[in-house]
């Protein structure tokens, strides 16, 4: 039996409480389950399962550095049993737009199991990380692959048409060969974006 603070097992449950308990229980339906977890909450098993999914989804073209970029923030994870079949992460980055610094939710490691395509898994993980961005950040940014463009644009992500740069240890460098999409009512679509420094892909 479901236990809740203030509700004794076997006791008569008031109507309002019964309705609340039913709502909680009914969220645990059979089939793929989505959860939001910070990196520190992930077990070693879960991290390994996420990495295995990313290796499958990117056909082995996902490096340790790429995976490191997805850590330290909030993960949207879809599981079916003990198998991870969908994932996206949003991490905090400091990005400057036209001289003003913003706290940005940067989306990383968006992937669904290749054998579970066209089941709405990508929509679910994107909606989850967008909820995090809406509640915690000034706006969202992601580096979009060609394969993901349709999904991102369907969710309201807009191509940034201005200049891209990065603040490197040696100073400001041009990254105009990169391209990003932005999300949110406060997201700029032109001007100049400058990202913070990191190893590997800067955007």
Summarize the structure.
The chain is of the alpha+beta class. Helices cover 27% and strands 32% of the residues.
Cα Rg = 20 Å
- Estimate the global geometry from the Cα principal axes: globular
Binned, the helix content reads 25-40%
Largest sheet features: 10 strands, mixed
* Number of E strands: 10
Please provide a written account of the structure:
By secondary structure, this protein is an alpha+beta fold. It is 27% helix and 32% strand. It has five helices and ten strands, in the order H-E-H-H-E-E-E-H-E-H-E-E-E-E-E. Strands 1, 2, 3, 4, 5, 6, 7, 8, 9 and 10 form a ten-stranded mixed beta sheet that branches. Strand 3 and strand 4 form a beta hairpin. The longest helix is centred in the middle third of the chain and has 16 residues. It is globular, with a radius of gyration of 20 Å. The N terminus is likely disordered.
Annotate the secondary structure layout.
Layout: H1 15-26, E1 33-38, H2 44-57, H3 64-69, E2 74-80, E3 83-97, E4 100-112, H4 121-136, E5 139-142, H5 149-154, E6 158-159, E7 163-168, E8 171-174, E9 181-183, E10 192-195
Parallel strand pairs: 4-5, 7-10
Antiparallel strand pairs: 1-2, 2-3, 3-4, 3-10, 5-9, 6-9, 7-8
């Amino acid at each position: 039996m479901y236990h809740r603070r203030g509700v004794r097992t076997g006791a008569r449950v008031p109507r309002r409480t019964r309705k609340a308990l039913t709502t909680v229980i009914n969220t645990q339906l059979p089939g793929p389950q989505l959860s939001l977890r910070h990196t520190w909450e992930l077990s070693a098993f879960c991290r390994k399962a996420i990495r295995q999914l990313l290796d499958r989804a990117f056909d082995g073209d996902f490096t340790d550095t790429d995976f490191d970029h997805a850590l330290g923030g909030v993960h949207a994870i879809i599981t079916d049993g003990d198998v991870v079949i969908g994932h996206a992460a949003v991490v905090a980055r400091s990005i400057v737009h036209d001289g003003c610094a913003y706290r940005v939710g940067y989306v990383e490691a968006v992937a669904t199991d290749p054998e579970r395509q066209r089941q709405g898994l990508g929509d679910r993980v994107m909606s989850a990380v967008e909820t995090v961005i809406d509640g915690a950040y000034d706006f969202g940014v992601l580096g979009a692959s060609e394969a993901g463009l349709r999904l991102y644009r369907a969710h309201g992500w807009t191509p940034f048409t201005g200049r891209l740069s990065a603040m490197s240890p040696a100073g400001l460098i041009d990254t105009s060969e990169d391209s990003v999409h932005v999300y949110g009512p406060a997201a700029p679509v032109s001007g100049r974006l400058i990202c913070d420094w990191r190893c590997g892909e800067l955007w």
